[in-house]
Structures are given as C-alpha cells and as structure tokens.
Amino acid sequence: MRPVGVGAPLSVDIEEKTFNSAEGVTIAALSNLSFEVRPGEFACLLGPSGCGKTTTLRILLGLDRDFAGSFSLPEGGADRVAAVFQEPTLLPWRTVEQNIRLALPKERRNADLEWLFSSLGLGSMRTLFPGELSVGLARRVAIARAFATEPAMLFLDEPFVSLDEATAERLRYMLLSVWSSRPTTVLMVTHNLREAIMLSDRIVVLSPRPAHVRGIFDIKLPRQYRNPQIMSDLLRSFHVRFPDVN
Amino acid sequence: MTARDTGLLGLDRSAKVRTFRWPGATAKSAPFLASAGSLLVLLALWALAATLWPSRALPPPVEVWHMLVRETASGDLPFHLAATLGRVAAAFVLSMVIGSVIGFLLGVNRRADQFFNPWVVLFLNIPALVIIVLAYIWFGLNETAAIGAVALNKIPNVIVTIREGARALDPRYAEMAFVYRLSPLDRLRHIILPQLQPYLAAASRSGIALIWKIVLIVEFLGRSNGVGFQIHLYFQLFDVAAILAYALSFVALMLLIELFLVQPFERHATRWRRRAA
Question: What is the pLDDT of residue B269?
Fold first, then answer.
C-alpha cells in the first residue's frame, strides 16, 4: 500500500460556476470558492441547503466540467478517487460483495476485504442484493465500496442524510473506525453542524448561494477526546465565530 | 359466504398460503396443468369438427399425428425442421446484435436519432414480402439473401425497443462508473446490459415469433429445404395433414425453446428483482 498523508493537498479554486435555468435565467451557484484540505485530513464542507455543496463535489469528481477555475487533487488522487453519493447508487442486479469488488481495479478484485466487511458489520450480507437491504445498510455498503478502493481522495456527499439519528450516529462511528484504520484525505459535504464537529479536522463554512468560503474552523483536538461536553464547547466557539450559522 | 369470498380476509389468507409454499411444487404445476387442459379442449373441438364435417381441407388430429410420425421416421421432418431452425437462429442473432447496437447508439445520441429516425420508420413499414422479393432479386436465390432479408425485417423492431431502453439508462450509475474508473467492458457488462435486460427480453420475445414466420415465407418463395419449402410442396399437393404436421411440430419446437431456454435464462437474469424485499 502506498503511503497516504504526504505530498500535495486538495486545493480548490473555483472562480465561477453558473447554471442556466429552464426559463433561460443564469443562476450563479459558486463564486470565488477556494479552500485547501491538507493530505490525510478529514474536512467538512458545511453550508445551508442548496448553497452549491453538491455542485462543488460534482466538479471535484470530474462529473461537471463546465466551470471557470481550477482544482488539484492530492497526490495519487487522479485515479484513486472514491465517492459516497447521497443515494447509495448500488447496482440492484449485483450482490453486496459484487458491488464492492466491482469498484476495485481488475488486479485487486480478489483482494482481502475481510477487515472492511467486519468493521462495517456486513459479514453476513455479502450475498444479498441491494433491494434486500435497509437504507442504513445500503449506505454502509456504499461506504465499504469507497474504502475498498483504498482511495487517495474520498468524497462524501451527505452520507447520513435522511437516516434516523440513532442509525446515523452508529454509521458515523463506523465511518470513523474504518477511516482511522485506513486514513485518507476526506472531503465531506454536510449541513449538519454537530456531525461536522464530531468528524472533522477542518470545517470549511460556506455562504448561501452563490457559495464562497466564509471561514475555516479548524479543530485540533483528536477525535477520541471529543466527548459531549467538549463537543458543546466546540459548538459554542463555532457559534461565536459564525453567529448566524445554525 | 366463505372466507375466500370476503375481500380483505380472503386476500390475507391467499397471501399467507403463497408465502409458505415451497417453490416448484404445486404453485408451478397448476398453471401448467391448466394450459395443458385448455389445449386438450382445443384438440377435442378440432376432432369434433373434423368428424361432423369430414373434408380434405380439415383432417382429424389423428391423421395429422400419423403424418407426423411417418415424416419423422423417414427423416424428412427433422431435416427440414433443422434447416428452418438454423435460419431462425442465424437471423435472430444477426438482427438482435445489429439492432441492439444501432438502437443503443440512437438512444444515447439525440442528433443521430433525429437524423436516422425517418429511416427507422421507413424500414419499420416496408412489408416483409417486399424486402424478401427485393433481396432475392438483388442478391440471388441464396442463403445470405434469405437470412439477410429476415434479419432486415426484424432489425427496425429491435432498434425501436432498445432505443427506448437506452433513453431510460440511469445517469447515476454511469457517474458511479466514472468515479470508480470502470473499464468500458465492465460498464457494458455490469451497468448497461443489466439496465437494458428487460428491453432485450422484450425484443427477443417478439423477435423469435416474428422471425420464424418470416423465415417460412422466405423458404416458401426461394429455398429448397425447410418447413416453408415443405408447406409449399404440400400446398401444391393439397395435403393439409402434412401442412399441419410441419407447422405444428415447428410451433412445438419453439414452445420447447421458450420453456427450456428463454424462461430459465430470464429467471436467472431477473433473480435480483424477485428476491427484492
């Protein structure tokens, strides 16, 4: 395995991204959006709904090339990108295990994924089809697929949205445990401030549309020390810096 | 009034029974027995009609059966069945492959579709007979012209069906494939073909039925073997029993293919759907 956490950061410098609505009106989605994520860091892109977070992610994933500006992925990130979309986007006609292995490059298709299955609690689900899974389980499979590729850059697009809080919380812990055993640079989109404070090293706070960076909130404290008491302290200091973000 | 007649209660009960029945047991053989019984009734009606109005034009089933046995024993029937089946298979594969490729390209490329759509409509509406006659005139009375003409009749149908399928492809799967750098072959095998599967099934279902009927016309008009040629021969001899023997044996053959080849394959291809929670 190649060492991760060294070399160039993820650096984003999007000057402008516009959409043309059906009525022919031009809507600016992003304007002068620039930030960096250091290698090996877990960063969150926090902003109000509809501010252009997912748009940013689509640009970084190479799914949307119609924008002005530039970005560079961390070293090795060009072909080792992984993503967890808002929808799990599993192939319904392939089993859980086939879905995960399909994302791997040909020469690694038979890699040992036991650690991944067990840490995400998917051991007994391998032969099931996605239609037989609950929403929470399908999300776990999508997370497993992303980590199986041992990405140099991982993008998460609100992976815990529309789950009940208990399930979401369990999944956050699972994500953290997988990520700490295979650290990689992560950029996660969310509008849940608590989630961002629990998971990330750095929160990039976005303004409403057209999105630009309002400020960076770095959390130096290691995750294992972030107990409820400390998290509410962090939350308070976040609100002091960004009073109108909820 | 029994529980079966009552709305909700009856529904609940039958649903329960179905869940607990072992697959492959009575649940499957019942519809099979029903269709067998229905066919027997048809046979009985035919026998009755042939007895009530005896005529050369409508031989009784027994006579057709004797003819079938005689032709099978002489080896004529298997030979001509094989010839026809070979043509059906060749035309089927040819039209499915060519039609699917063109249909897919038109489905994903709107400008190409706009340009070629009138061609598709044109070929869709040319009568099979015209294509066959023209193929024989232009390319001679040979196997290539025969199979080509049949395939050409079917290709527009395949194009139209697969084009719909290609238009309905879910872009999210393509994006997933792009992010994870799936190879073109993997995309075809794991992303595109499974999404096109229902459309491919529909095209091949209607395809086999259409193709074998057209193959008979092709053989009738310009081949020296096959079921169509034999029907032509017995038509001139006014031997209705032989005509029916050949036609029915080929129908039976297609039924067997449907039962033991097409349906098991479809069950396999859609297993993920039946198991869905």
Answer: 84
- Domain B59-274: give its CATH code: 1.10.3720.10
Instruction: Give A245 to chain B, closest Cα distance, Å.
Output: 31
- Token couple for B232: 């032509």
Of the candidates A75, A42, A3, A9, the one whose C-alpha atom is nearest the C-alpha of residue A159 is: A42
Say whether pLDDT at B276 is over 60: no
Domain, as residue range, for A102: 88-149
Q: How confident is the model at residue B20 (pLDDT cuts 50, 70, 90)?
A: very low
Nearest CA in chain B to A87: B172
Residues A241 and A158 placed together within one structural domain of the fold: yes
Domain ranges of chain B: 7-51, 59-274
- Do A103 and A191 lie in one domain? The reply is no
Coil, helix or strand at residue A20: strand
Query: What single string gives the DSSP state of each residue in B165-206?
Result: HHHT--HHHHHHHHHTT--HHHIIIIIIHHHHHHHHHHHHHH
Provide the ipTM.
Answer: 0.86
Kindly state whether residues A223 and A192 are assigned to the same domain. yes
Amino acid of residue A50? G
Minimal C-alpha gap between B267 and chain A (Å) = 13
* Mean pLDDT of all residues in A88-104: 91
Same domain, A105 and A182: no
